[in-house]
Design brief:
- The protein has 320 residues and is of the alpha/beta class.
- Helix content is 46%, strand content 18%.
- The protein has 11 helices and 12 strands.
- The chain has helices at 2-26, 41-57, 70-82, 99-107, 135-151, 170-183, 201-215, 227-239, 257-264, 279-290, 311-314, and strands spanning 30-35, 60-65, 87-90, 112-115, 129-132, 158-164, 189-196, 221-224, 249-254, 270-273, 298-300, 305-307.
- The strands form 2 sheets. Strands 2-1-3-4-5-11 form a 6-stranded parallel beta sheet, with helices on both faces.
């Protein structure tokens, strides 16, 4: 009788343990994600990639749109901390001003993953890893394409206007730095105007209109920190009676479908790829991080450069 009772008790304990283990295993990973906003084709594709990947991977996603305001993003991160999510991921609006809220996440033992954009913090342990592009290299690639273009007319000076991204954001800072680093080697290449277009199509058009009003036909090249600003600028150039891609050479970054359509139409000369399809990679890394597995501090996406000559052939392959 005693043996039977012991056997039954042991069986019950095993069943209870098995049920607890199964429940734990079935518990979905909860991720709080704060997005910059919806300012461009790129950002929209990035949001879709993250939401789709979370759904496919069984991750419970708490999504917050910061509408390009840092204060909204800080509030979202604090909300995620209060909700005790398993992991926080976000694409920061700007580089600086994150130390306090990231210390709060660390104190709550919630790991933080940066996507697309980096932060400038005094303590690098405040985030686990960064997933995204090398923005300095993107700027260099844009500059290298222009250097090759300039070689065709080595004695001709080229006046460049620059549409910068959001002031203080990592891509705006780095894409400017990389581009300037390369074109600085050619004294015939000179940036005569540089102003933020805030990564939006409307602002890109508005600022390009101001550039044209101030400099007119002195402008030979436009370097835009993203495709949406370039597309807005194309509208301004056409409305000014000039031919984009011919009268003004246009270089941009992102590689969205709209840029390929502009290249096929002969209105944009080259786009440097910056892939927004980070969702699957983010979900995989998040699971490793929560499981306590070691991950690299920086994970850089592999990307290319697409001049107008290959646009028509490449267009059917574009996913964003």
């Amino acid at each position: 009788m005693k043996l039977t009772r012991r056997t039954l008790l042991a069986s019950a304990m095993l069943l209870a343990l098995s049920a607890t283990t199964s429940a734990f295993a079935a518990k979905p990973l909860v991720m709080g994600f704060s997005q910059v906003g919806a300012e461009s084709e790129w950002r929209t594709a990035n949001t879709v990639s993250i939401k789709d990947a979370a759904k496919k991977d069984g991750v419970t996603l708490k999504f917050a749109d910061a509408q390009q305001k840092q204060e909204n993003q800080v509030k979202a991160l604090r909300s995620f901390i209060a909700q005790k999510v398993d992991v926080i991921a976000f694409s920061p609006v700007v580089e600086s001003g994150w130390d306090t809220v990231l210390r709060e996440a660390k104190a709550a033992k919630i790991p933080v993953i940066l996507t697309d954009r980096a932060v400038n913090v005094t303590d690098k342990s405040l985030y686990v890893t960064f997933i995204g592009s090398d923005f300095v290299e993107e700027g260099r690639r844009a500059g290298q394409w222009l250097m090759e273009y300039a070689k065709k007319n080595p004695d001709t000076a080229l006046n460049i206007v620059e549409l910068q991204g959001t002031v203080g954001s990592a891509p705006a800072i780095d894409r400017k730095e990389g581009f300037q680093e390369v074109i600085g080697k050619n004294p015939n290449l000179k940036i005569i105007r540089s102003q933020t277009g805030d990564f939006t199509r409307a602002k890109g058009k508005e600022v390009m209109e101001a550039f044209l009003k101030a400099e007119g036909k002195k402008i030979n090249v436009l370097y835009a920190h993203n495709d949406d600003m370039a597309i807005g600028a194309i509208q301004a150039i056409e409305e000014a009676g000039m031919k984009p891609g011919k009268d003004i050479i246009i270089i941009s970054i992102d590689g969205v479908k709209g840029a390929f359509e502009a290249m096929i139409a002969g209105k944009l000369n080259v786009t440097v790829e910056c892939s927004p399809l980070l969702g699957p990679q983010l979900m995989s890394i998040a699971r490793d991080v929560v499981a306590g597995k070691p991950v690299p501090k920086r994970i850089t996406t592999v990307e290319g450069v697409f001049p107008a000559e290959v646009a028509a052939k490449e267009f059917p392959n574009r996913k964003y």
